[in-house]
TrEMBL record:
Organism expressing this protein natively: Strongyloides venezuelensis
GO BP annotations, alphabetical order: adherens junction assembly; bicellular tight junction assembly; microtubule cytoskeleton organization; post-chaperonin tubulin folding pathway; tubulin complex assembly
Pfam families: ARM_TBCD, ARM_TBCD_2nd, TFCD_C
Protein name stated in the entry: Tubulin-specific chaperone D
Residue ranges constituting the Tubulin-folding cofactor D C-terminal domain according to the UniProt record: 879-1047
Length: 1164
């Protein structure tokens, strides 16, 4: 399903250069590139990304085909046939191109000289005797994929105009034609693409002039014999599908008269296969049957010029415009082309068929009409096209019966599949001119329903197909009927197309409706404000739903004839939509459009919404209530909503009635979906009543307050946010009634919970209710309590409540006059604390990312406050920027972008802030001709940030940021960071490297540090100690900072833990890996002995995962340790012990292993 909030379907409209280079290099390097599994997977994934837009590959397809064929070796003339591995791999890759671009596109670029005929046939015959099992260890190559390429090549070569007898080989007993047919029959049941190509080859061969007499009838009877197996209990459906496809191909390629003679027999033999309605057959079988019977029907009827067909006359847009300029009337309806030769005209009142053929033709049409209601869309498409083709050869009366069958059989029931099939058929009939003007009114009625078709609980894709078919009808109408005929329907058609172009949830439908509108504007005499509207809702403009609902609809609404239909469309079809985001979009659209016609919106639109809200469906009620809130908010902003006005449907009586119903539904402890929607409905209703000036009793307001407090304590985030929104409006009312009551709640509930409570839902309630208080009730004490709670290290895990508290601090204090009551120093400490919060949850991972994101937003609001400009020192700003740089180095792309934007905002703030090294920052964050926020998505951002690694002011923050993200990145980002760090260490002096160790020691030994920070630092040391700090191995004890870190690792390893504590076990594992480095150090080192003893204790412990991982790391170091430290014999013994010990096995065996290790390490 598509993402409705942003661009839908906006994939690249070009073949990306890097992809083109990757594909071409892959094809050139066959078979080596195929054998490299990683390279093949990269190629395969990128290539199939173009399957939906294969036309992008057309320009390079000839070159790729040529490269692939250069790896294929065919047998030489009169030589033995040998198939090498490279040829098979090349043909397999060619089959991938056929799958993506279709065989018709690929075969155009295959060599088609007749000399290839024998070689390809021999290749196919030899391949049939081969066993490819085990040829590829990944089992990717199959005979069907190879045959797909070979038969595609055979198809173009065998299509030569010469008699096939000329190519018979002296060495072969069989004729070339027989060999082709045998090859086709042997591979008939291959995959669907190969089977389609085989059917094409076979049908063209037996209908060739030199083969038709001897082979066509014989082949048809062979097919009928095979298809007759369908009546048996046991049958091969793939074989039946193959021969049905072959029959369809023959009836398409062969001469009509000869086929008409045998058509009746074929229909009789098909039997039950024609009953599409009652049988649940294989879908492909139904498609082939549909194609076959329509072609049989066409063989019964000879092509004719139909005088009864509606003919508009002018078919060219250029002619239409010229006639409009010359004030001509374009009403050339029912005018046929001048027929100079009367003998060419057909008798319109009779069919040139036998009685038996007419009887079968009626059965064919009945089957096709049933096919329009088939559950499968491919069958419906085929049936619609078949009806259009056959109708082109029928008499007027017969054709009217077909059209009546479509109207009567598809649109009487409210069924999505039958409506889709009916719309497809009507589109075909309209485009071909078979739907006469007297049925135009009926079709427009159907079109209006189909173009907005959406079942409440239907399948989204099927609903989309109905709307798509309806736009096809709209397009066909423009090309078929004259302006005079369409004039009574222009307004209905224009408004439907415009509303669908703007408001449909699917990009394809919006674009199709836009194209149909453009076609009508160009080909009809008049479409209201058509040229102006075309420029607004063009192909590109309608790409984004957010733009359609917030900008384009407002531009279109300036043309009065479209405003009311758009408002009605949103209320009728989009408000209450099954997809919540679409309902939200409808609310946005209503908010903007209501302002443009206030009277209609206040009287008609609001009344419709209020009636729609009167329902037992709580979900629908909630969605409609959101729409009512948007409408009333928009009217209130225009100062055009007065509850005392007579024409206002939102009366006091109606409000009281609605309140009684909503409170009854919402006042419950149940937390099921229905109750949640009822509570959300009440929240929006409260907001509406409080903001529109409705006067109610004190008891109602206090009851609402009690309920909203309960709602903010719910699990549902949406409900908490809705209740918080309503509380902000309600608190103003309640404060005016009883300030004493509010203050009592603040002291005894909200602040009490904030100070002492440790239950997250209760804290959510406390914080959200505080954030809803009016400014007059907020004070310094409340602000300080929020700051203390946010930084309370015993409640760091209550992330939702802390995020709410920080948001409250930002919106209610920092961004208001209340900022002056906050402690400047405490506020700065709180913001820096939050942006450096790396709290992790074992189940949810980096949960602190939410508070870091909110902290970044709060910092920007803080530094931009005019009252603080005099207090902002360079050190404070430097600290903020440094913490933002740490986030800009992180893995989370969203945080990287937000942090980069924040630094940009600080650098461009006016008046300017005191910023150290401002020019160095400007080089990175203020770029010309680039959107740096987009740049911060890609891995090359680390190259930009690495410019600050040696900066005296910000270098520490960049280094710390890279350390914090070490081990969390993957793919190209991980490689980039590793390369940057390695290069930096290589170009740094020993003293500078030791300074980095000192920085890490200071951070890791801080009190109550997050496990995420410890893990990141230890992972960093594990990665780079051996690469960049080899100089400490000789005299480890003299490097005090690294010794302190190793002592801390010993502490972590020896730390007692609960059996189920996963966090401790993770730290033990990382600490053990760092301690393993000491194996390489001088054996006289005291810290080495302590470290190795701690390692042995870790291996003896109960944490088998940590033991296993650390044993692998020890083994890696033992392989490279100097012989002077561990001799070869001991080294081999230790490696065998570590490799063979089962760490979750017998404790005595583990104890024996560690004792031997102690002896080897000389620490026993």
């Amino acid at each position: 399903m598509t993402d409705f909030s942003e661009a839908i379907g906006l994939t690249s409209d070009i073949l990306l250069p890097e992809h083109e280079e990757l594909f071409e290099k892959y094809f050139e390097d066959i078979p080596q590139s195929y054998d490299d599994y990683t390279r093949f997977q990269q190629f395969f994934t990128r290539l199939y990304g173009y399957k939906e837009k294969s036309f992008l590959l057309d320009q390079v397809l000839p070159k790729w085909v040529s490269i692939i064929l250069s790896h294929v070796k065919l047998a030489k003339d009169n030589g033995n046939v040998g198939i090498d591995r490279g040829s098979l791999i090349a043909l397999y890759n060619l089959s991938l191109l056929i799958d993506i671009c279709s065989y018709k596109n690929v075969t155009k670029y295959l060599p088609h000289e007749v000399s290839y005929l024998e070689k390809i046939l021999s290749f196919i015959e030899t391949l049939g005797t081969m066993d490819l099992h085990g040829f590829d260890k990944y089992e990717r190559i199959t005979k069907s994929s190879i045959n797909r390429s070979l038969f595609a090549w055979l198809y173009i070569v065998a299509k030569n105009p010469f008699s096939l007898d000329k190519f018979d080989s002296i060495q072969s007993k069989e004729t070339t034609a027989n060999r082709i047919l045998v090859a086709c029959s042997m591979n008939m049941c291959s995959d669907s693409i190969c089977s389609k190509i085989i059917n094409k080859i076979w049908s063209q061969l037996v209908t060739r002039a030199d083969q038709i007499e001897a082979r066509m009838n014989k082949t048809i009877h062979l097919c009928l014999e095979k298809v007759s197996d369908y009546s048996n209990e046991i049958y091969n459906i793939n074989e039946i599908n193959g021969y049905l496809g072959l029959l369809a191909g023959i009836f398409k390629e062969g001469p009509r008269i000869e086929l008409a003679n045998i058509g009746v027999e074929v229909i009789d033999k098909l039997g039950d296969l024609m009953d599409l309605e009652t049988r649940e057959d294989n879908t492909l079988t139904k498609v082939f049957v549909t194609k076959l019977i329509q072609r049989i029907g066409l063989s019964f009827l000879k092509p004719r010029k139909i005088k009864w067909r509606y003919c508009r006359g002018f078919r060219s847009l250029e002619n239409t415009l010229k006639s409009r300029e010359n004030n001509e009337t374009i009403s050339n309806e029912n005018k046929s082309d001048n027929i100079s030769n009367k003998e060419e005209e057909d008798d319109e009142d009779s069919l040139d068929c036998t009685e038996e053929q007419i009887e079968k033709l009626e059965a064919i049409l009945a089957t096709l009409l049933n096919g329009l209601r088939d559950p499968n869309s491919n069958v419906r498409n085929s049936a619609a096209k078949g009806l259009g083709r056959i109708t082109s050869r029928l008499t007027k009366d017969f054709a009217e019966d077909v059209v009546n069958g479509i109207f009567g059989g598809c649109f009487e029931d409210y069924d999505t599949t039958s409506w889709h099939g009916g719309c497809l058929a009507l589109a075909e009939m309209t485009y071909r001119g078979f739907l006469l003007p007297d049925r135009l009114s009926d079709m427009i009625d159907i079109l209006e329903k189909a173009i907005v078709w959406e079942e409440a609980d239907g399948i989204i894709k099927q609903d989309e197909a109905v709307r798509d078919a309806a736009t096809f009808i709209s397009w066909a109408i423009a090309r078929t009927y004259s302006p005079d005929l369409l004039k009574p329907f222009v307004h209905r058609l224009a408004t439907r197309l415009v509303t669908v172009s703007l408001f449909d949830k699917e990009l394809n439908i919006r674009r199709a409706a836009s194209a149909a509108f453009q076609e009508n504007v160009g080909r009809q005499g008049y479409f209201p404000s058509g040229i102006d509207i075309i420029h607004i809702i063009d192909y590109t403009s309608v790409s984004r739903l957010s733009v359609c609902y917030n900008e384009l609809c407002v531009k279109v609404a300036k043309y009065e004839e479209y405003l009311k239909p758009m408002l009605d469309h949103l209320v009728e079809f989009k408000v209450g939509h099954q997809i919540v985001k679409m309902n939200d979009r409808a609310c946005e659209g209503l908010y903007h459009l209501v302002k443009l016609n206030i009277t209609y919106s206040r009287t008609v639109i609001l009344e419709k919404l209020l009636k729609k809200a009167d329902t037992v469906n709580c979900c629908l009620q909630y969605k409609v209530m959101k729409a009512i809130e948007s409408v009333i908010r928009s009217l209130t902003e225009e100062d055009s909503f007065d509850v005392l006005e007579k024409d206002n449907p939102f009366t006091l009586e109606r409000v009281l009635e609605m309140n009684k119903k909503l409170v009854k539904e919402a006042d419950t402890t149940s937390r099921n979906k229905r109750s949640t929607y009822a509570k959300l409905s009440l929240s929006y209703f409260i907001k509406i009543c409080c903001e529109c000036g409705m006067t109610l009793s004190d008891g109602v307001y206090l009851k609402w307050l009690e309920l909203l407090e309960n709602f903010t304590e719910e699990n549902s985030i949406e409900l908490r946010d809705g209740a918080s929104m309503a509380s902000k409006s309600l608190m103003e009312k309640v404060a005016g009634i009883s300030t004493i009551e509010i203050n009592k709640r603040i002291e005894k509930r909200y602040l009490h919970y904030l100070k002492e409570n440790r239950f997250d839902l209760t804290l959510n309630k406390a914080v959200l209710m505080i954030s809803s208080l009016p400014n007059s009730l907020l004070n310094e004490n409340i602000g300080n309590e929020l700051i203390d709670f946010i930084q309370d290290k015993t409640r760091l895990h209550l992330m939702d409540s802390r995020v709410y508290a920080l948001n409250c601090l930002k919106e209610r204090f920092i961004e208001s006059e209340l900022l002056k009551v906050l402690s400047f120093t405490k506020t700065i400490e709180c913001l820096n604390f939050c942006i450096n919060d790396f709290t992790c949850d074992p189940a949810k991972g980096d949960v602190a990312r939410f508070i870091r994101e909110k902290a970044i937003q709060a910092i920007i609001s803080f530094v931009k406050q005019p009252m603080l400009y005099d207090k902002m020192s360079s050190d404070i700003v430097c600290k903020f920027i440094g913490n933002l740089l740490i986030q800009a180095c992180g893995k989370n792309i969203n945080l990287r972008q937000i942090a980069a934007q924040a630094i940009y905002d600080i650098l461009t703030t006016e008046p300017s802030l005191p910023i150290l090294e401002v020019e160095a920052l400007r080089k990175i964050f203020i770029l010309k001709d680039f959107n740096f926020c987009e740049i911060f998505v890609y891995a090359n951002v680390f190259d930009m940030l690495s410019q600050l690694l040696d900066n005296n002011v910000y270098g520490f923050y960049i280094r710390y940021g890279l350390v914090m993200s070490s081990g969390y990145h993957n793919g190209c980002e991980k490689e980039k960071i590793n390369q940057i760090i390695t290069d930096y260490f290589e170009n740094s002096s020993i003293d500078k490297r030791l300074d980095i160790i000192k920085e890490l020691r200071i951070e890791i030994l801080k009190k109550k540090i997050s496990s995420r920070i410890i893990k990141s630092i230890l992972d960093f040391l594990d990665t780079y100690l051996i690469e960049c700090f080899e100089f400490i191995q000789e005299d480890l004890d003299s490097f005090k900072d690294i010794c302190e870190i190793l002592k801390y690792c010993c502490f972590l390893v020896n730390l007692k833990q609960k059996p189920s504590t996963s966090k401790s076990s993770t730290l033990k594992e990382y600490a053990g890996k760092v301690l393993s480095f000491t194996i390489l150090c001088n054996e006289s080192s005291s810290i080495r002995k302590k470290s190795l003893e701690s390692l042995c204790k870790l291996l003896e412990g109960t944490n088998e995962v940590a033991s296993f991982e650390v044993s692998k790391k020890i083994t890696e170091y033992l392989v490279i340790v100097d012989e002077d430290i561990v001799n070869e014999e001991d080294k081999e013994t230790a490696i065998n012990l570590l490799s063979n010990t089962v760490w979750d096995g017998d404790s005595k065996a583990i104890q024996t292993t560690t004792e031997k290790l102690r002896r080897i390490f000389k620490i026993s």
